[in-house]
Amino acid sequence: MRNDVEIVAGKPAEFSDAERATFVELVRAGDEVDDHGLEKKIANAHSLVFLRQEGQVRGIAAVKRPLPNYRKRIGRDARVELSDADFPYELGYIFIVPEARGHGLSGSLVAKALELVPDSGVFATARIDNQAVCAALRKAGFGLAGEPYGGRGSRTLQIFVKQA
Ligand SMILES: CC(C)(COP(=O)(O)OP(=O)(O)OC[C@H]1O[C@@H](n2cnc3c(N)ncnc32)[C@H](O)[C@@H]1OP(=O)(O)O)[C@@H](O)C(=O)NCCC(=O)NCCS
User: Fold this and answer.
1) Whole-number Cα distances in Å, 157 to 5, 79, 119
2) For residue 129, which phi and psi values (nearest 5 degrees)?
């Protein structure tokens, strides 16, 4: 990892209101997730991860606690069993600000997030045409699970899993 990059992880409550607001803003900028109840979902996450460069937030990710209905719905759509016992967490909200993309920073974010739940199975979803995030997930040890399925708008999503 570049030595001007700092990655900080913690429970949502360990960050300030301003930091959590920045997190929400960047998730919205990514425009990859349903906005419904976003603040609450972020506050309920297992952990948030911030990547800073020269003191500026350049990227985020989270270890999420997926809601049962969501887990059930995407598992049904993708025809894969995503039980809470096997995959208690979801890696998500991965975002690098546009001007910092293409330097491999997403890999460092993903690695840091996974260090927080070393003994747990984790799943993630990605647009099938989002080559950067798919590459970062594969590099971190995730494999494809189930079939591609329809997401928000015209998105086609793929579930990735990493066993405990
Ligand atoms: C997805 C995102 C976080 C990736 O970050 P990034 O800085 O663009 O990508 P990185 O430079 O870290 O590259 C990650 C991997 O993807 C590859 N990659 C990057 N851009 C690529 C492209 N356009 N096509 C193919 N591969 C690409 C890189 O080579 C790297 O793989 P490697 O480590 O095997 O070489 C970033 O593009 C982003 O924030 N996008 C908007 C939000 C989003 O889509 N989030 C994902 C929600 S699941």
Assistant:
1) 30, 13, 26
2) -95, 10
CA 156 to ligand 1 centroid distance, Å: 17
Q: Whose C-alpha lies nearest to ligand 1, atom 3?
A: 95
Pocket lining: 82 vs ligand 1, CB cutoff 6 Å? no
In angstroms, the Cα distances linking 39 to 14, 25, 105, 106, 111 are 15, 10, 25, 23, 24
CB atoms within 10 A of CB 124: 26
Phi first, then psi: what are they for 132, rounded to 5°? -65, -50
The CB density around residue 149, as the number of other CB atoms within 10 Å, is 20
Per-residue pLDDT of the chain (164 residues; tens, 9 = 90+): 667 899 999 999 999 999 999 999 999 999 888 888 999 999 999 999 999 999 899 999 999 999 999 999 999 999 999 999 999 999 999 999 999 999 999 999 999 999 999 999 999 999 999 999 999 999 999 999 999 999 988 999 999 999 99
Backbone φ and ψ for 26, nearest 5 degrees, come out as -70, -35
Q: How many CB atoms lie within 10 A of CB 107?
A: 16
